[in-house]
Design a protein that fits this description.
The structure holds two protein chains of two kinds. Chain A is mostly helical. Chain A contains 22 helices and two strands. Chain A has helices spanning 3-21, 27-50, 84-100, 109-128, 132-141, 143-153, 158-186, 193-198, 203-220, 229-236, 239-264, 266-271, 273-292, 297-316, 321-352, 363-366, 368-382, 388-403, 405-430, 437-440, 447-465, 468-486, and strands at residues 60-68, 73-79.
Chain lengths: 491, 493
């Protein structure tokens, strides 16, 4: 069994075991087992990056086995510079989520931990799958644990949010399914994604395929105007759910653009790039403004996620090395930063059971250590230099300016808006005089919370100061992809 | 073809003998729980299933009884799954019927006779044999629905089922007589030859075809011949609903194949259009009506209508661009669909019986509330069934939908691709009400706190059933290959 298979199936097996055997009375043992499983899965993914050959754009750590003969679908896994970081990110975030839910989750602990472990394995599967059907199976299957997580451990409107999440995503991905089957037909009976990359397709077919994939991935990213499920899902999901949703699940969509839309339908991608860019800019500017007026902290961060993901799609569809790498860096950094932001809200929520900005004020007086961490993450969210948030945005803006000055100018407003909503929220929640008794009685971070905050803080600063290891890994794959997209498939 | 070959009908002969034996033996059983009858029935059914599987593995096509029956892998594969379905139904049904004073010898002999009818249908090679099998099956089922004769709802359902079923049989018979009039034969291969020769009057043929398809549509329960489905599913005791909703679907698929494909391939262009209309109508009505249901059995009945509609898409896409190149692919996808559907249905209705107890029918959707707390295991299994019906991977239902969609898209005809997109969008509607069941089980608080008193063997079979649906979701290759092989053989003759 290869490393990727292990990274997929170990957490799933452990999660299934917890679901099947765990009892409510054994919460403590369940937590430790879950942590052990998450750590083991994380350790398994480490060799993927240490043993990664940065000089080639080919798939590495490949596994290829027969799976469903009738469809000629294969169990084909592999990672390249585009996907490898997300495998790592997924397993790391899972560890953090398990630790973060240590005390705050008391109801059906085994199901909670089991669902997150299974989800983690499935998401690794999405990033590693090189077979269209396998990809689709993983992509779709991630909905099930997330649906349960939001619905069982979520807030008061959790049922509505869970349904909206599930049906929105399903609607998009069902159209993608038809596209996958169409590609299977056009390629003469193959579900191999790499074969599809080389498949010549007419302009009409490419356009239809592009929009079928667009339906699936734009909902997942989410892009304006199909983003409305995200604020609901984020607000109602438990902290762990929000973290995974923001840090990884949104990336599944953006990743899909790079793995499917662009290489399979390059001509349509170039033709419709203006469309994606327009939607992305709308997300960056309009959603940035929407974030500004939110009263609920989680909603604010949710909208800021939409705006940040707008940056990612913008970077991709200007078809430049800087933009694409920038988008990818932004995806990883957003993985850390949004996870940290939601964890911070989780820390406050566990103590006060409120997400309203207005119920806080002066938190820095009672929780100085926490406020320091929160400051770092808020700055990163605003895109302050020397934090992870800056690098990706900077690269995307540079790339946009190269393409068109006004595009760059539009994108750059995000920095202003990002700073406004992030810092204004920070000011209202943390600074000022202590306004009420509940805040006065807040306890600073526990050792457990301190630990996860530290891990994320290190990641955020490391990415901000020295992003080279990240870009190095991507470089070859990104240039190869750009070269591929530049060649027309029309014949 | 014209010799008296008994070999092909050994499973049916054995089943007939054992059904009579069971009826006789039961007269001497004093046990309230009917233990000897039960085990004798199960053992006989297991032997029948084994015989069918054995014949399937031999992969031969034989004709018997002077060409009245044909034994081919398709018939035996369907026969095998029908026998398995009846076995599983009886396991699920036993505690349920016992607590409702329905555990009598008739239950066992009638279910065996209905299986005999199914067995006859799947291997029929003659219009009259099809009709005989159909009547044997449906008459047994009418009686089964009425088994609880002091129960007004069940009696009403039985009447409704009987009247509408008789009407459908009339349609079918009328269509058959038209076919006979046009082609001069009742033998399916003969009919095929005569139609291919182009001699018969096309008008009479198509006229008869309309009646045949209507009759089949009644049996499959597709729009606009679906009205009996919700009422009968809801009104019949759940154990009997299981017997109606499970194995007979396989038989309906089989006779559709025998009549339309084996017999009237020459008219494919005509009946494909009819099936497409039935199919789209069923998906539309079934999915939309299911949303409004609060009764789980009714909801599942409407979902059945939608599922059968989806299944018909495969049958309707066999002949495209004027050739039959993709026929095997299309029909085997439908066959896979119907088999996985039956497996899933067994579980869903079985679950209703697990949760029911004396004096309490757990047939409202709200009766499932908080099941995840009362029994996480059963809730998980039920969730698998629901996801499978919704077509979410990694469950069998996804692969079934995938293979039918693939059959549609690989015809390469733009019209079929549009139909595929439509089917996909309607199954999105379907996802909503299946998800609602999961929501009730996992997100809602339990209203019913009584412990679940399901015996161990039932739980075990239920778990195996759930595991089968999951495994067929991850490794569907084996069953798909079996279906493909069966269909290829059936088309070759």
């Amino acid at each position: 069994m290869g490393l990727l298979s292990l990274a997929i199936w170990l957490p799933i097996a452990c999660g299934a075991l917890l679901l099947a055997l765990g009892r409510d009375e054994q919460a403590k043992a369940v937590r430790w087992l879950a942590l052990l499983a998450a750590l083991a899965s994380f350790l398994i993914t480490l060799p993927l990056i240490t043993g990664f050959d940065v000089s080639t754009a080919a798939m590495q750590f490949s596994e290829n086995m027969a799976w469903i003969d009738r469809f000629n679908a294969r169990y084909h896994l592999g990672v390249d510079g585009i996907s490898v970081w997300f495998v790592l990110l997924t397993s790391l975030i899972t560890v953090i989520v398990v630790v973060a839910g240590w005390e705050s989750v008391t109801k059906r602990v085994n199901q909670y931990m089991g669902a997150f472990l299974i989800l983690s394995g499935l998401m690794v599967g999405v990033f590693a799958a090189l077979d269209g059907l396998l990809f689709y199976m993983f992509f779709e299957a991630t909905l099930i644990p997330m649906y349960i997580i939001i619905g069982v451990w979520g807030g008061p409107k959790r049922v509505y949010a869970a349904f909206k999440f599930f049906l929105y995503t399903l609607a998009g991905s069902l159209l993608m399914l038809v596209a996958l089957i169409y590609l299977y037909f056009q390629s003469g009976g193959s579900f191999d994604i790499l074969t599809w990359h080389q498949l010549p397709l007419g302009a009409h077919a490419q356009t239809l395929l592009f929009f079928a994939f667009f339906a699936a991935f734009s909902v997942k990213v989410p892009m304006w105007p199909v983003h409305t499920w995200l604020p609901d899902a984020h607000v109602e999901a438990p902290t762990g759910g929000s973290v995974v949703l923001a840090a990884i699940m949104l990336k599944l969509g953006a990743y899909g653009f790079l793995r499917f839309s662009m290489p399979i339908a390059p001509d349509a991608s170039r033709e419709w790039a203006w469309f994606i860019i327009a939607l992305s800019l709308t997300a960056v500017i309009y959603i940035g403004l929407v974030a500004l007026v939110q009263k609920d902290m989680k909603k604010l961060v949710a909208y800021s996620s939409v705006a940040h993901m707008g940056f990612v799609t913008l970077g991709f569809f200007i078809f430049g090395e800087l933009g694409m790498s920038g988008g990818l860096v932004q995806m990883i950094s957003h993985g850390f930063v949004s996870a940290a932001m939601f964890l911070c809200i989780g820390v406050l929520y566990d103590r006060m059971h409120s997400r309203e900005i207005a119920s806080y004020g002066g938190v820095v007086n009672t929780m100085p250590k926490f406020a320091a961490f929160a400051m770092l993450f808020t700055m990163a969210n605003a895109g302050l230099p020397a934090t992870a948030g800056f690098v990706g945005e900077w690269m995307v803006i540079l790339g946009s300016v190269q393409t068109n000055f006004w595009l760059g100018a539009g994108a750059a407003t995000a920095l202003i808006l990002g700073a406004s909503y992030s810092l204004w929220m920070y000011k209202r929640v943390y600074f000022g005089a202590v306004t009420n008794d509940a805040v006065r009685q807040l306890q600073d971070l526990s050792a457990r919370e301190f630990l996860i905050m530290t891990v994320l803080a290190v990641a955020v600063i490391w990415m901000g100061v020295y992003p080279k290891p990240f870009t190095d890994v991507m470089h070859t794959s990104v240039t190869e992809l750009l070269k591929h997209v530049a060649v027309s498939k029309l014949n | 073809m014209n010799n008296m070959n008994w070999l092909p009908v050994y499973p049916e002969i054995f089943l007939l003998i054992m059904a009579c034996v069971v009826t006789l033996v039961d007269l001497f059983v004093k046990d309230e729980r009917r233990t000897p009858t039960y085990w004798l029935t199960q053992a006989s059914l297991a032997v029948v299933a084994a015989l069918h599987l054995n014949y399937f593995n031999r992969g031969e096509t034989l004709y018997g009884l002077q060409g009245m029956v044909v034994t081919d892998p398709m018939g035996h594969l369907l026969g095998f799954f029908a026998a398995v379905a009846v076995i599983v139904s009886l396991v699920y049904a036993r505690p349920y019927v016992q607590s409702r004073d329905m555990l009598k010898g008739e239950l066992f002999s009638l279910s065996m006779f209905s299986l005999l009818g199914i067995s006859v249908m799947v291997s029929a090679n003659n219009l009259l044999v099809i009709f005989l099998g159909l009547e044997l099956m449906t008459l047994s089922l009418y009686a089964l629905v009425a088994l609880r004769r002091d129960h007004p709802v069940a009696t009403e359902a039985a009447m409704k089922y009987f009247v509408l079923g008789a009407l459908a049989s009339g349609f079918l018979l009328y269509g058959m007589s038209m076919m006979y009039g046009a082609t001069g034969s009742l033998s399916i291969p003969k009919i095929f030859d005569v139609i291919s020769s182009g001699q018969p009057n096309k008008g009479v043929l198509v006229f008869g075809l309309v009646f045949l398809v209507s009759g089949l549509a009644f049996k499959l329960g597709v729009v606009p011949f679906h009205m009996w489905v919700p009422d009968v599913y809801e009104g019949a005791p759940t154990a009997i609903t299981l017997l109606i909703g499970g194995a007979p679907k396989l038989a309906a698929f089989a006779i559709t194949m025998r009549l339309l494909v084996d017999g009237m391939m020459g008219l494919a262009v005509d009946w494909q259009q009819m099936l497409l209309v039935l199919s789209v109508g069923s998906m539309l009505v079934g999915n939309l009506a299911a949303i409004a249901q609060t009764n789980l059995k009714r909801m599942l009945a409407y979902s059945t209508i939608a599922q059968m509609g989806f299944m018909l898409l495969g049958l309707a896409s066999g002949v495209a661009n004027g050739n039959t190149l993709s026929a095997a692919n299309a029909y085997s996808s439908s066959m896979f669909y119907v088999i996985t559907y039956v497996l899933t249905t067994l579980g869903t209705f079985g679950m209703i019986m697990v949760l029911s107890r004396k004096g309490h029918e757990a047939e409202e959707i709200t009766d499932l509330a908080g099941l995840a707390k009362r029994s996480p295991w059963l809730a998980g299994v039920m969730a698998i069934f629901m996801l499978s019906l919704a077509g979410v991977p990694p469950t069998a239902g996804f692969n079934a939908k995938l293979s039918v969609l693939q059959a549609l898209v690989t015809t390469g005809v733009e019209f079929y691709i549009v139909v595929a997109v439509l089917a996909v969008l309607l199954s999105l509607v379907g996802a909503y009400y299946y998800l609602r069941v999961i929501k009730v089980m996992f997100f809602d608080e339990a209203t019913d706190q009584a412990p679940i008193a399901a015996p161990l063997d039932l739980r075990a079979v239920m778990s195996i059933n759930g595991a089968a649906v999951l495994v067929l979701g991850i490794f569907p290759g084996g069953l798909m290959a079996m279906c493909a092989q069966a269909i290829v053989k059936a088309l070759a003759t």
